[in-house]
From TrEMBL:
Protein location: Membrane
Major localization listed first in the record, in broad terms: membrane
A family per Pfam: Zn_peptidase
Membrane disposition: Single-pass membrane protein
Keyword Lipid metabolism set for record: no
Name assigned to this protein: Neutral zinc metallopeptidase
Biased composition (Polar residues): 245-261
Transmembrane segments: 21-42
Record organism: Microbacterium pullorum
Transmembrane helix in keyword set: yes
Amino acid sequence: MTFNDNARVGGNTAKRRGRNGAILGGGVVGIGGIAVLLLSLFTGQDLSGLLGGLGGGDAATEESAIENCETGADANANDDCRLAAASLNLDQFWARELDGYRQPQLIIVDGSTPTACGTASNAAGPFYCPPEETVYVDPTFFGILRDQFGATAGPLAQLYVLGHEYGHHVQQITGIMERYPNNGSGADSNGVRVELQADCLAGAWIADLPQQVDENGVPFMQAPTETEIRDALDAAAAVGDDNIQRQSGGAVNPESWTHGSSEQRQRWFDTGYQRGARSCDTFSASGADL
């Protein structure tokens, strides 16, 4: 997904925060480690304990603004700026869609940083921390997947992940998380319904992206191509519980699902993309229709 080069994106409030030194780099983590991190990235579960010895050390945590992030051209050239710029799109979309919307904080993680929900790093993957109303993303994870392993982690895949986490923020501030607390795993569980709804909300936002404009009325982004949408759907399928179970060598067991199947994640993303945020009521759907 491409930003228009002359779009103004400098009004974002994203911050960079972290300890000195990266969690990954220099060949420290092998393919097995990347597999663990890939699961973390898309399931929102911190599996970094499986890696061992990858902590960021005791260096002080520092926070700063995202630099060199003023135009759409900057966003196209840099993952940090792309995510920061996309936060403007997300806030604009949700302020229009939801009365009383309040924007979350977006933290671009540099190395690692402590949070109320555990350590944020590229080992934990992107996640939303409800007590802080903050989304944490370490963009180096996208670079590792893209540059070293050829995985789908292009611009629209990145926006899908960010839109999914902002979907969790919407669920938090509208009381959905409180009304439907975690009741364990399973294909019909609240956890699966929460995640599928976040996929749907991400799809609704992505469909609206070409309609959003900067302070001068310049559209932030160009319309997504069919190839980019296919990549987003492929990313949604890759992180289905059934696919992850197959890739890990185990049997497909719906009773252990926490995020939904590949087919469900694709379908709910597409539902939001085609029909908008008001079509994303996964909680009224029967188990058979979920």
